[in-house]
Amino acid sequence: MEQTKLVELFNSLTLDEKIGQLVQLSGNFFESNDVIPTGPVSKVGIDENKVYQSGSILNTSGAKQLKDIQDRYLEKSDKKIPMLFMADIINGFKTVFPISLGLGCSFDPEMVKKTAQIAAKEAAVSGIHVTFSPMVDLVRDARWGRVMESNGEDVYLNCLYAKAMVEGYQGDNDPSSSIASCVKHFAAYGAPVAGREYNTVELSERTLRDQYLPSYKAAVDAGCKLVMTSFNTINGIPVTGNKEILRDLLRDEWEFNGVVISDHSAIKELIPHGVVEDSKAAAKLAIEAGCDIDMMTSTYSNNLKELVESGQLDKKFIDEACMRVLELKNDLGLFENPYRGADEEAEKKYIMCDEFRQFARETVSKTCVLLKNNSILPLNKNQKLLVVGPYANNNNLSGSWSINVDPEKVITVYDGLKKQGNHVSHTNGSPLLDEDSKLDTFGYGKTVKNDNEDAQTLLEEAMNQAQDADVIIVTLGEHPHQSGEGGARGDITLPKVQIELLKSLRTLNKPIVSLIFSGRPLALKEVDENSDAILQCWFPGTEGGDGIADIIFGKVNPSARLSMSFPYSVGQCPISYNEFSTGRPAKTSTHSKRFTSRYTDMPNDPYYCFGYGLSYSNFTYSNIQLSDNTLTLNNKITARVTVTNDSEIEGTETVQLYIRDLVGSVVRPVKELKGIQKVLLKPHESKEVSFDISEDMLRFIRRDMKFDSEDGQFVAFIGHDSSTENQQQFVLIK
Ligand code: BGC
Predict the structure, then answer these.
(1) Is the CB of 264 under 6 A from ligand 1?
(2) pTM score above 0.90
(3) Where does residue 33 rank: exposed (0-12), middle (13-18), buried (19+ CB within 10 A)?
(4) CB of 146 closer than 6 A to ligand 1?
(5) Could you read off the pLDDT of 358-382 as tens digits, one per residue?
(6) How far is the CA of 475 from the centre of ligand 1 (A)?
(7) For residue 336, how many other CB atoms are within 10 A of its CB?
């Protein structure tokens, strides 16, 4: 629709109709012809006749269903403004990829972009217009359940992924293969105090700007069409009512022109936050702060009109928010075709088609991180294998966000292994959860309990079957609902019953390969002590079993690297490689050990550090050099290193460049990732890998709060992971 027509339409709207555009409800409000007053309507407290004025729907899919809803809606709507369909498509739609934390471990933004393209295609033909993704919250605390939705702890990497995903979803706005992207949760939702869900965030402005904001900015710069507010506070004010964040920063400083949507119920939650007294004040605070759409509450719907009519709210706030929603609808072409990409035939053709599944399988083998290998992997197809443990033949492999997955289509570990191995058997070995554990699932009053199986019987059966095996593959992990939203944990070890299974099997003195399924880094010391090899599989999605088997039998040589540190124990949380320098660094301080920055009962270093991950090849680094020791504004320097594959197996090494600013006007991180490169090396081949270093890579929020670099000494490190000490020094002179 031409802009003038859109303005005409906008001018024809009543105040009620404008407010309606700012309200988002879930699909079950619209699933039958008549609104059910005792169902969702009464729960949300929305006036029944306002339901058909609301502008968007959350989490409903399926071409037929969405076309029907759109038809019914348009029939009842006076001004015939199509409804927007938004949904959480996080790590794939029906073809489910590994969880985002796993995707982060690929260190491969192009691959991640393609996962977003596939998800967009499947979602678009199913009638969806917008995805609440990417989630780009920087995370450092493995206690927080939602680390599984993030790409990890690194600023640079998260920016690459944010851009890749927005571009992947939105493409060139083709209705049949793209959807609009909503970056979330703006801002800094990944830093809740003590890792507890929905808790306060307490960050200095410098850390916020230097570390937590860049990934959202990267998504905005890549053109994402929506931004979702986060539940947390920043500087004491919940973001959903925080004008400094939503208007001054997002709109004025970053020039974001798209739609801002609240997170689920976040406007209403301004009341329990204690920054407003009632829902009228909540509506006023949020709309004035710059939050356009109210997700799933009646706060806007029931209050904005009265606020305007009583003169307490300037109507311009409603006008500008409504216009942004209309512009988004127009941009997506809904006025020309309200169904947009929804197409039942295309659904049949594309959803979970062979090509998408094959690609998903490749993503599994590129995201499983090999944490340990005492020369036992890859296995030989003729070995007798027992696959045991609660994930041995479990199709719940897609993580807590896979709301559209068809479990029947998931390839289990056993399915995958038996396709490639000649002698594979399986048994459950243990329940997933300890007997005394109670786990709330996503609402609905259900609690997951121990699978009702007798742990002792399962263990005995496993011990019997293991007698016969050459190698035991033990599948261990968390329940998928132990991570994800509301999945914070104060203990990040495996259930006792699973450790008991592992330790019992260990007494048989047979080689043990442990496969770990989790939505967070777990404390794996006991697993390490009782395994010959460990593969961190995350929740690998629909093709999990095939992708894992590809690694186990060596069809694929693992190349993934940890995008989040694995702590030694929960006591180290939050932890990340890019911590700030202290006055008494444990390794180099001149003080006696006691009086340095360290724990008395465990190491400072994580169990497995950021960037770590093994391969079946063995890579060595030599000859790190800089083209010049002086960097200026106009003159880049090139850092080079020689990487050698010192093995008989071809493999891909992810070479990592880190930089340290030795002296700054404010305390600087001990290392920061600034470049990655993948290099494929044949057996015994060497290649030189180089990175350009330019002044802009050294900028940070200085003492004067300007984002700029400072003259002085820097160290460039190039190596296998964040613990690398291969280094050369240079100086910046501006
Ligand atoms: C989550 C968001 C999600 C929204 C809609 C909220 O509870 O925090 O990430 O997009 O629900 O489902």
Answers:
(1) yes
(2) yes
(3) exposed
(4) no
(5) 999 999 999 999 999 999 999 999 9
(6) 30
(7) 11
